[in-house]
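Retro notes (design track)

What went well: tokenization of the new backbones is finally stable.
What didn't: we kept losing track of which sequence belonged to which structure.
Fix going forward: every design gets posted as structure first, then sequence, in one message. First example under the new rule, 128 residues:
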């Protein structure tokens, strides 16, 4: 009988949590997961581009691996940007030097690649 009580208390707590999760949408109750869902809804939003960057681009462009221009290094990006966005997007899609085709973003659209390039070429805020 004691084991039945031990199982029913966690089950009751789980039911309460699940029931609360089904409550009507209250803007005050939005979470980080809601924000991520919003980014998916607009795959070109600044937040969506930043999420893709951290998932796909940072591993090479964060530290300049194999000659990749570092994120936020406007001097390194300037000659590349001078080639034009169409060329940079084509290089990202087809691969260029040590960068494999599509980098590490196999599901990115051309518009997302352009957004990622703009994000990486811009000066990034310095951590405090």
């Amino acid at each position: 009988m004691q084991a039945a009580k031990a199982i029913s208390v966690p089950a009751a707590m789980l039911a309460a949590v699940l029931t609360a999760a089904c409550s009507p949408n209250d803007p005050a109750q939005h979470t980080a997961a809601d924000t991520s869902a919003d980014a998916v809804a607009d795959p070109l939003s600044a937040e969506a581009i930043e999420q893709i960057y951290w998932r796909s681009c940072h591993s090479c462009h964060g530290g300049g691996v194999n000659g990749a221009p570092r994120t936020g290094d406007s001097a390194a990006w300037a000659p590349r940007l001078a080639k034009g966005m169409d060329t940079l997007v084509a290089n990202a899609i087809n691969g260029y030097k040590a960068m494999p085709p599509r980098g590490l973003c196999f599901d990115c659209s051309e518009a997302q690649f352009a957004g990622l390039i703009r994000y990486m070429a811009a000066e990034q805020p310095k951590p405090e």
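Added context from the reviewer: The CA atoms of residues 94 and 100 lie 7 Å apart.
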